Amino acid sequence: MKPSSAPVNPQTLALAVLGWVLECEDRGARYLELTGLDPDSLRAGLNDPMILASGIEFLANYEPDLIRAAEALAVTPEELVAAKDALQA
User: Fold this and answer.
1) What is the C-alpha R_g of the chain?
2) Which of 28, 49, 72, 83 is placed for a possible disulfide with 10 were both Cys, Cβ 3.0 to 4.6 Å?
3) Are the CB atoms for 88 and 53 separated by under 8 Å?
4) HSE-CB of 78 using CA atoms within 13 angstroms
């Protein structure tokens, strides 16, 4: 996949990633279990860069999902990881 034509804001991309993660009930449950978040704390933390980055980190730990998410969001896996790094900086 080629990089997107315009840079995407890391927060915007991370929100899109969380949407992608949570659209699948099993994947969403796994994300919440592994992060220790519950739906209320996730909603409350949507302005927290670390919580936003956690969705991309979750994908980065399972490459097939990272690749699927990148394809669904029309970005490269590298762009996802760069967004995570920017949020964690």
Assistant:
1) 12
2) 83
3) yes
4) 5
Q: Is there a contact between 69 and 80 (Cβ–Cβ < 8 Å)? A: yes
Overall size of the chain counted in residues: 89
Cα distance between residue 69 and residue 65, in whole Å: 6
Each domain of the chain, given as residue ranges in start order, spans 10-88
The reported pLDDT for the residue numbered 8 is 81
Residue that has been written with the tokens 């890391």 in this structure: 10
DSSP helix/strand/coil, 45: coil
Mapped onto helix, strand or coil, the DSSP state of residue 70 is helix
Helices 25-35, 49-60: crossing angle, 10 deg rounding: 120
Torsion sign across C-alpha atoms 52, 82, 35, 26:
positive
- Residues (pLDDT < 50) of the chain are 1-2, 4
